[in-house]
Amino acid sequence: MRAQFVLSEIGVGLRRNLTMTFAVVVSVALSLALFGGSLLMSDQVTTMKGYWYDKVNVSVFLCNKSDAESDPNCAKGAVTEDQKKEILGDLDKMSVVEKVTYESQDEAYKHYKEQFGDSPLAASLTPDQLQESYRIKLKDPEKYQVVATAFNGRDGVQSVQDQKGILDNLFKLLNGMNWAARAVMALMLVVALMLIVNTVRVSAFSRRRETGIMRLVGASGFYIQAPFIMEAAVAGLIGGTVACAFLVIARYFLIDHGLALADQLTLVNFIGWDAVLTKLPLILATSLLMPALAAFFALRKYLKV
């Protein structure tokens, strides 16, 4: 096959269908940018889970005098010293527990003032209104139910709370947003494929005379189809390159500079550049293969001479 002829035909095809080629580039760029973004969002959620699940605690709150008057779980009165020792001893025996930290009412009051000192309620709150608690670090955050089953409803225990439940709601929201992005990505991919098929169809129709002559002089089917397939591949590759550039720029300005979320949201462990760079070859490969395959199958129907 003469490479010069194929390259010249690619240039002719792209110039003849410049508007549709531009539409293909834009749709491929948008769809693959969403594709890459959804992959990075999945990595971000996984990173955040690993970071935060390692830090969450299970809290066993103990009954105080105020709870004894208002909370059915503390109907037998405030927790006694013997009950506290028994609860601590049972926690130390549990294989799922890694570490237990005791928090007194004064410590709980201090932490509350640090976090909510500006609220109107903080001014009227006293240490004896807050609960003592045991803060439990689990070896496996998924084993919360083991602790909850052992201590819920026990004498002296007001409640057992799992911080992981709060994080799960956040991660469900992030996963929902990620699936929404994937749905839009799928729609954009369908649009891109339709545009590619139509572009190839118009290109093949506009050059039906040349392809007919090539067929008559004995040119092979692949020799005839190659320029059309490569036109689609080149347009897709341009779109993929734009998508890669968009992801790199977005990561640079959103996290490192510009909005600088890494500096403003210090509690969030953002994904690094390695996560972004490892996605770029996949995006480029998809941008090259997807249009080429779409063009190949479209030509089987529209390039019959």
TrEMBL record:
Organism for this UniProt entry: Streptomyces cyaneochromogenes
Domain annotation ABC3 transporter permease C-terminal: ranges: 183-301
Membrane topology: Multi-pass membrane protein
Family recorded in the similarity comment: Belongs to the ABC-4 integral membrane protein family. FtsX subfamily.
Residues annotated as domain FtsX extracellular: 56-160
InterPro entries: ABC3_permease_C (IPR003838), FtsX (IPR004513), FtsX_actino (IPR047929), FtsX_ECD (IPR040690)
Cell location: Cell membrane
Protein name in the entry: Cell division protein FtsX
Lineage: Bacteria, Bacillati, Actinomycetota, Actinomycetes, Kitasatosporales
Major localisation: membrane
Keyword annotations from UniProtKB, A to Z: Cell cycle, Cell division, Cell membrane, Membrane, Transmembrane, Transmembrane helix
Subunit-level organization: Forms a membrane-associated complex with FtsE.
Pfam families recorded: FtsX, FtsX_ECD
Domain of life of the organism encoding this protein: Bacteria
Entry's Gene Ontology BP terms: cell division
Function comment: Part of the ABC transporter FtsEX involved in cellular division.
Keyword Cytoplasm: no
Transmembrane helix listed as a keyword: yes
GO cellular component, as recorded: plasma membrane
Transmembrane intervals: 21-41, 179-200, 232-255, 275-299
